[in-house]
Write a structure and sequence with these properties.
With about 280 residues, the chain is α/β, with parallel strands linked by helices. About 45% of the residues lie in helices and about 10% in strands. The chain has a domain at about 85-275: Tandem AAA-ATPase domain (Rossmann fold, 3-Layer(aba) Sandwich), CATH 3.40.50. It has twelve helices and six strands. A six-stranded parallel beta sheet has the order 1-6-5-2-4-3, sandwiched between helices. It is globular and about 60 Å long.
């Protein structure tokens, strides 16, 4: 029993090293069906990332005068190569997505949704900086739901939230778009964290959104699942000002995540200085 427990706490890399040592020399390991699914998913996201580079370059070049004061020193205006950038989405939306139920979106929330969709169209990460109580959660759920049901853009997406609002995010998904398959990734129990890690990696085709907490995101038990081995469509940070200090573990963890784009949700995008922004 002690040996079994010791194996359970081995890191993913350590397990791979042990397995390689036990494998007969010259015999190539055949990936399992689950591993193939993960590889295919990651390859699809990598392709999407590559395809969005032109769109991102066009957007930055078009708005360079506005963006330039905020970019890293030494960064130059992108050289835009002529290419066929056909619209991906039918924008702007004039009414809320049909997949959103249980609520009537207000005009400013629909404006926010159109903004998020336009940033997706442009290949850009972004900040949703509405004040508290204006429906940032609804706008975000509407974005992900629209991408799935009306634009045929699959996930999974990762949403990282403070523990205090974790249950609220789960409830809001059930309320506004019950068809979205949401997996809850949070536990203080080490064995349960290992089980959740396995679920995130082995069932990548069976969920649309993984909701986790900042504590879990920086947990060593979740590193290879959330950071190293899985590519996400969106990584979304609720109360995203929590990563304002780039020296913190959580800020470095988020920067290491593989994804097509990121969204920072916060009512206070600028608290002290422009460097945080």
């Amino acid at each position: 029993e002690k040996c079994v427990l010791a194996e359970e706490v081995l890191s993913w890399k350590e397990q791979k090293i042990q397995a390689a040592k036990q494998r007969p020399a010259g015999k190539k390991r055949v990936p399992t069906s689950t591993e193939k699914t993960l590889q295919e998913h990651n390859a699809a996201i990598k392709t999407a990332i590559a395809m969005r580079k032109d769109r991102k370059a066009h957007f930055i070049a078009k708005h360079w005068d506005v963006i330039a004061p905020f970019v890293a020193y030494g960064m130059k205006k992108p050289r835009v190569v002529a290419s066929d950038l056909r619209p991906i989405l039918k924008l702007p939306l004039t009414s809320q997505p049909k997949c959103i139920t249980g609520v009537t979106m207000r005009d400013y929330q629909l404006t926010g949704l159109n903004y998020l969709l336009s940033m997706y169209e442009a290949g850009m990460s972004t900040i949703l900086g509405d004040e508290m109580g204006l429906g940032k959660t609804l706008q975000t759920i509407s974005l992900l739901s629209y991408l799935k049901y009306e634009a045929n853009v699959s996930g999974p997406h990762l949403i990282i939230v403070p523990l205090s609002v974790f249950s609220n995010w789960i409830a809001e998904f059930k309320r506004f778009c019950p068809g979205m398959r949401v997996v809850q990734v949070h536990s203080s129990d080490e064995a349960e964290r290992l089980r959740l890690r396995k679920t995130v990696l082995s069932e990548v085709a069976n969920y649309d959104v993984a909701v986790t907490t900042y504590e879990m995101a920086k947990s060593p038990a979740m590193q290879n699942a959330l950071v190293s081995r899985l590519y996400w469509r969106y990584v979304i940070l609720d109360e995203g000002h929590m990563i304002k200090n780039e020296e913190t573990i959580i800020a470095q963890t988020v920067r290491s995540m593989h994804c097509e784009a990121k969204i920072v949700i916060t009512g206070t995008p600028l608290q002290n200085n422009l460097h945080e922004f």
